[in-house]
Amino acid sequence: MKYVLLILTIVGAMQCYSDIEIVRGETVADESSIKQLTLHCPPGHKVVGSGWSALDPTNAILDGMINYSQPSYDGSSWTFNASNHSSYSTQWKLNSSISCMEQEKLDSDYIITGETELNRAKVKQFKLNCPVGKKVVSAGWAALDGSGSIIEGQVGYSMPDFRGEGWTVNVENTSAYTSLWRLQLKVICLE
Length: 191
Description:
Layout: E1 20-26, E2 34-40, E3 45-55, E4 64-71, E5 77-84, E6 93-102, E7 111-115, E8 123-129, E9 135-144, E10 153-160, E11 166-173, E12 182-190
Antiparallel strand pairs: 1-6, 2-5, 3-6, 4-5, 4-9, 7-12, 8-11, 9-12, 10-11
């Protein structure tokens, strides 16, 4: 019998919130190659986190790829674009969840947005920090063309830093449409 020892180090403490509401949704299961789903927070709430999966019609997890995942500018919703890369099943659905918090508990500037310059670099990495005194709790990214339209991108890395002060994302432009693009990152920062 093998045992695995897991050691966790707590590098900082954040306040726990009991007033989080989870909103779930999914698309229909079919053979569409790319699917988009936008989930909205209930009235009086704003989005503070998200998650997604590509599932077959029986809810088995498939090999999916997220092409876009970002909160709206005002925090009222989160949009996901994903594609199915599974050889197991061409029938699939995009399943997503968002975490929503009461708006009155959030600062008006809790979503910080930044982006790289518009150029033809195949892979871009970008880090965005929260204002001093706040911690990053979630982030979303987008590969965008010169007009701001979504293009296909593949995320290779998306993580908060070890202090929880910022988030770094690494994205490759996989679009057949254009090689001229920019990487946009939105971080969600709470006290």
